[in-house]
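Lab channel / #folding
Pinned by the channel admin:
"Please post every new chain as: sequence first, then the structure tokens as a reply. Keep commentary short and put observations after the output so the thread stays searchable."

First post following the new format, from NK:
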Amino acid sequence: MVNGADISCYDSIAIDSENIPEVIRILLAPLATMGYICYDFNDLCTTLHNRRFFKTLVADGKSIEDGVINMQRKMENVTVDKIEFISALLYFNREKLSAITMDDMAPFNNMMSGLPESIDVIWGVNFDNTLSDDIIRLSFIMSGREL
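Reply from TO:
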């Protein structure tokens, strides 16, 4: 995650790595928390292994639908056809938020279905009890040979 990194020395290089602590948090958070649909080290390895570049995005919302809308806005600045893998992680505070239903997941499902078929998606639903009671967070870890 250094600027001007030599691609021949690394498996994956972060793009837009101005905020390295935030990128590290995004990469490690799903490994350190449990959830309804768990994401583990092997999932992260699958996303990053033998890819030249990776990028992270985070979007918050008052609902899954709001989070999806905010993520779609951020994705407008990403060249989607160069992405090979996306790890999509949904976070919520389980102590303060009412249960998420399958109907609540429809906007997320629609966003994932709208991606090109060439993109492999791994997704998880994790708890983050540091989030306020009315916030849903959506994190993307995207990788590809070019980004």
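NK: The chain is about 30% helix and 25% strand.
TO: also worth noting, Strands lie at 13-14, 35-37, 53-61, 85-92, 120-127, 136-144.
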